Structures are given as C-alpha cells and as structure tokens.
Hints:
The chain is of the alpha+beta class.
Amino acid sequence: MADECDLSEIVTAFLLDTCGLPPWPSRHRVEAAVNCALVATAHPRDDEEAELITLITGSVAEFYIEPMLPHFGDIDVMFHRNTHLAIPRGHPPPTQLPAEFHNNVKAVEIIGSHLPGYVYLFLRYLLLQRTDGGKYEYFECDNGQWLGNRSCYKEYENIHGPAVLTDNSHRSHLSVDNVHCVRCLSWPPQAADWPTRHRNYGWPDSATLDRVVSNGCDVVGVAHRQCRQHEWMGKRQHRLSFSRAEIVLINSWMPVQQITYHLLRVYAKTQRLTESADDSGAGTLSNYHIKTLMLWACELKPRSWWAENLNLVRICVELLHTLSVWLTDTHCPHYFLSDCNLLDNSFNVESVAGKLSSVDEEYLATWFVHHYVGQCAQLCPFYVFLLGDVSTSVKLQKTVSAIVRWRLNTSLSDMWRAVVFAELHITGSVSQYTLTVHSCVCWMNELTKIDKRFSIYFSSIVLLHVARKISRNCFNDKWINILTKVFGHNFNQCYSVLSELNTSELVELLQNSAVEHLTTYRQLLARDFGSVATIVTTDFEALYAYKRGDYQQCLQLSTQNVHALLYTRCLHSVPILPELVQLFDDDIVSLTALTLTVDPVCRDDVNSCITQLTLSLYLMTQCQLKLRHSVMSLAQTLAYIKVAQRRHPRDNMLDNLTLKLTERKVFGATLY
C-alpha cells in the first residue's frame, strides 16, 4: 500500500473531486419535498381548523454537498399546527404573528424542568386576531392544562423518539420521520448566552447569528430517557429542538467542513459506533453527538485549520480524538445549552472511546481507501477492474481517477433520473391527495428550492387538477384561491371573466394554459438534458391538438416527433395519471383503466407511463385514420411501430399494450 502521506493526499483529493459536484436536483431532495408537501396536505383529526406547517430538517436540509455514498438515512419532516404557539415563561404573548398562523391561536408557556433542555408546556392564553389591522388580543385561560407529549400519536405504533416513522423501503424510497412540534418564535432563555458568548474565530458571523436567533426554536414531544417510565413526566415532558438553527449553521459551513461531517458519520455508522441518526437521547453514541462535535469544531478552530495544507484524514483523526476525550470524561457539551451534557453514566462508551483514541492517520487513510473509495468503486459499472492491486500510490491514483471521471461523466444522468422521478411523484401525489391553498404554497416553496423547472411542471399539474375537479363540480372560491396562490393575482383579477364562462369553456381554458406550461417545461428539459436523453418539446401540443380535433396539426407534430425519437436510445415518458389522462382519448383511457384493473402492479407510478415515442406513434396513427390516409402511408407507420418494438423493448405493460393497440388499429385499417 502507498505510504501514509500519499494515501491521505489521494483520499483528500478524491473526496474534494467527488463531493464538490452537487448533481442538483437529486432524488433524495425530491423525495423530501414530496413528503413535506403531503404532510402539509393533512389535517389533524382533533382540530379541523388547524393547518400543518412543515419544515424539512435533518441531513436533507443540512447538506448542500452530494457525495457518491448516500448520506441520507431517512427524511425528517417537522410540522407544527398553526393554531398553537409556544412562548417562554413570563414573556407577554405576541400581538403580531406570521401570516401562516390561524386567527385563533392557543399559546402555551415553556416551563423548565429539572433536566437542561427538557421542558413542559402549559396552556396559558388564547390569542384572537382582530379584524382591524390584524393584531392579536390575548385572554388568559381560566382552565389551563398541561400538554401531553404524544397526544397526536395515539393511532400510531411505529414511534421513533419524537417521530412517527414511515417505512418506505418496500417502495425503494427513504423512510420518513414526521416530527410533531410546537413552534416558538423566540430564542429560548435556556440558550440565552449562546448568541453573545465570546468567539475567537468569527464563526458563526453576526449575520448568521442574527438569522439563527430570529428563527426561534421548536418544542418536540419526547421525555428524557430517565423520565419515560414516570407516570406524569413520561407523558408531559418535551424537549427543546434547535433543528432550525442547525440547518442555518451547517449550511454556512465551508465544503471541507461538510465533507468532514459526512466522513465522520460514515465512519461511525460503518464501525457501528452509532445506533440512530437523531438526538432522541438513547444511551448510545448517536449522530447528534457527531453533529455537536462538528459544531464546536467549526467555532473553536480557525479557518486556517480547515483550509491550509488541507488534509481531510488528519482533520478526521483529530476530531475523533476529541470525541474520545469526551467519551472518556463522560462529557459532551450541548452546543446551544451551556448547562447541558449529552452524555452521562448510563452511556456504555468505554470501548468506543478506546477505539477512537487509537485511530491514527495511517489507519484512517487505509480505512477510507477500503471502505469509502472501495464502496464508491462498486457504483461504477467497471468496478471489477478497479478493485485489483492498489499496493502503490500510482495504482491507487489510477483507480480513484477512473472513479472521478465516471462520476463527472454520469452527474448529468443522475440529475435526469431525479427529473423523471420528480415528474412521476408530483403528478401521482397531486392526483392522489386533495390540493389546498396551503399545500400548494408548500409544494411551490419546496420545489422551487430544488429546481425552478419543477415549479413550472407543478403549476401545469395544478391547472389540470382544477380542470378535472370543476368538470365534475362547479368552479368556486376554493379553486380561484388555489390558482391565485400558484399564479399570482392575475387569476384573481380575472375572476369575473372566468365566472362568466361555462364549465366546458373554463375547462378548455385551463387545459390550454396547462399545455403551454408543459411545453415551456419540455423546452427547458431539452435545453439542459439533451445530451443524455432525446426530448421532444411538442408532445403535449400534439396531444391537445388531437383533443381539439385539429388532426392535421397533430399529425405534423407527431410525425416530426416520431422521426426525432425512433432511433434514439433514451426515451422520456408521459405519466398516464388522472390529471394528465383527461388530455387523452377514450381508447387510451379505457386501456389504462383495464390495465390497472387486471394488474394492480401497474398502479405504481412507474408503470403508469408511456414513452413520448409510443404517444407520438399512437397520435400519428389516429390522425392518419381520421384523415383517411392511404394504405401506403399506414404501412409506413406500421414499419415505424415495428422498429419501436424492436429497438425499445419495455417491461412497462401499459407502454407495450399501447403499441399493440396502435399496431392493431393500423392492421384493421389496412385489411379493410
């Protein structure tokens, strides 16, 4: 094996090259956005007036780097009711609240416990918003009560700390931890000295400090492990959560600091040093201890320690030694609470401390080569050739260089897969769940953070959703409010005009606008991803032209699309889900319904699609039949269908059946 210095340099260069390239958007971030929006769609069963205000937390929100090895164990979504607010004990209730809050709010006081960071919540005030000026008046409750810490989880069994865990592994998705909290708009007095304590090296800077403090905190419903069996405290104890602060702070880190955090987590998980990825208080070392270690290091180490003579292996070794000292002394200082120790005598960490103290640069560099670089190599299609002899630095360098080249060459493909995933799950989620004004705001906010193209796609699906709903029921204020939220006040200003249209005219207007948005979206995709997939931009225009009866226009566009797609390798698909299915003719709708009825597997989003090529061939055939084209013209189309079936074999049943249906239509026409 190469010498210690060479190994550390090679590992450092490899990590900088592979972690410094964020393939936005990523599937994990899309998954988080979808789950966040779906939580916002829900309503508490015991409070019909409440809306759930959501926030993506944890790794998905904290990391802006995108390493080759996954660093998202699950998705964390915090949510609070807009009818509840926590205020520090003794603080007067606020007279103004953010627009997300209801006009009738229950204010609970945060009352400290005998354990630092753990509190109780007592209902103290009712806040009522005045109609003039929007300010709130408060009234002290005559019959205050203590809030339970798991009152909203009575119907759930899979509780993980303060979270309800949804296991999505059967769908090859990340699991989701949904954490109910009570929002506190104030920085808690328990952490009053954090913003003002002396910092030698200027991190966090004043702007970051101000942002953290202005975000306040949250209170989550979980008791300290020492109190969980207590009859009263176990049901009413809560914990202060600084997740909002951690997101801001970790996003302000330099890339080298984020990479270091990632490496420490990978090492701790692989070596089984941690049991869970949250700060639930279990008596074992957790990822929250690693996070705390990093937060302190970023504050206590000068920038030069991180950036000059950069050696990621050395940095990790020193931080692991610091963690070893903490474990030996049974003292892990909470980053925000000065009197809080995240370790106590119940932690069985003596063996872990010994392991960490013996880690040196040679060992860790070798470990990263075998367990990190080796895992990355297995992601490459030619990894068998990479896992051979790495006994010298030259051979190891060739291996990592090959991995880096592959990573660079496939980053756009990774982004493309995330785009496909996003389209399917945005469409499927909107089709399955009821849209509200509030959930639309959440969708738009979260999708825009990932990629503005997704907000355009979502806007088109909203238009189709409203068109589908009003085709069955009347156009009302709910739909105008949703459209206004998504598209601005233009829709609100046009309300009088829209209300004068009959249902069919209004549906047509909405569908036409949706197709315009979808075409714009297609054009953006073709511009940015044309090198990894052939994307035609007029498939929805052709589809809508057919629906309007403009068969000549549809035929022209579809023929062009067939010629563009027939001999390409990577084809894009169109989801055949309720929002989009209204654009299709009765034959496709019937075929889709039959497929879903006969084979439930096809109800999965991925199997509810047909490619742009299949769609174009179908439309081309239908238009030729409508326009009574010659047998020779239909024979040419049949030849195209044969090429498509031969060049693009599919496992997708709906796609295959659509091609067979198209083929039969051609045969039927040519026989007679």
